[in-house]
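Chapter summary example: a protein plus magnesium ion.
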Amino acid sequence: MKVLYDAQEIARAVWRLAFTIAADHRRKPLVLLGVLKGALPAVVDLARDLSAIPDGPSKIEVEYICLASYGRSTQSSGEVRLLLDTRLPMAGKYVVAIDDIADGGLTMQRVRALIQERGPARLRTCAVFERTDRRGSDFSLDYVGLPVPGTFVVGYGLDYREKYRNLPYLAELPPELLSQEG
Ligand code: IMP
Ligand code: MG
């Protein structure tokens, strides 16, 4: 597999995101809201980075929401299903929703709509990776890490049919692996 970003490059990008998020949430109660399953490594890394930054948020809570937009293919189904909702109250909290990659933006728009109506003090959006060609989407996120070309990518939380999330790096999925079952 062709590696686009190795573990160290991703760690540096996540650190930069944490630094910016910390600066924007000094002495504020922060909720890191991970969009499962892809954001799992990002939330863990961001949460630990944030706690190492002095004078950051007054408190860090971690919460998850599970949405799925891709079925068993590499194309978005165009429909985002809510599979698991949050339990922590969002009212009055400073929430940063975190996804692995921002593509067309449907997932984050859905998260924003769901959380906004629960009255957070503020809601911001973050993705570790962002597709450079975002299919004409005019939805922009508040915090983005590394650009990714049009090819399908896996690793650091991103999957193809539930495989490869465990890879510590981000790689292009070669076409010959695309149709393979298992
Ligand atoms: P969006 O809703 O179109 O922005 O798509 C974002 C979601 O699609 C992410 O949460 C990912 O789970 C998934 N996704 C988009 N591109 C890729 C990719 O290249 N590999 C794996 N998953 C992807
Ligand atoms: Mg996914």
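Key point: The pocket of inosinic acid (ligand 1) is lined by residues 35, 38, 69-70, 76, 99-107, 152-154, 158-159 (CB under 6 Å).
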